[in-house]
Amino acid sequence: MATSLNPYVLAAPNSKIRTVFNKVDGKEGLVKFVLGEPNFDTAPNIVTAAEKALEAGHTHYVTNAGIYELRKAISDKMQRDNHIYYDPQTEIMVANGGTEAIWLSMQAIIEPGDEVLVPGPYWSPYPSLVKLLHAAPVVVPMLEEDGFMYNIENLRKAVTPRTKLLILNTPCNPTGGMADLQLLKEIAALAKERDFYVMSDEVYEKLVYDGNEHVSLASLPGMKERTITVNSFSKSYAMTGWRVGYVMSSARIIKYCNKLHELEASCTNVPAQWGAVEALTGDQTVVDFMLGEYTRRRRMIVDGLNAIKGISCVAPKGTFYAFANVKGANMSSDEFCNRLIDEAGLVVIPGDAFGEYGEGYVRMSFAVSDETIIEGLNRLDMFMSKLNI
Question: Please, are residues 207 and 171 in contact by the beta-carbon 8 Å criterion?
Answer without folding.
Answer: yes
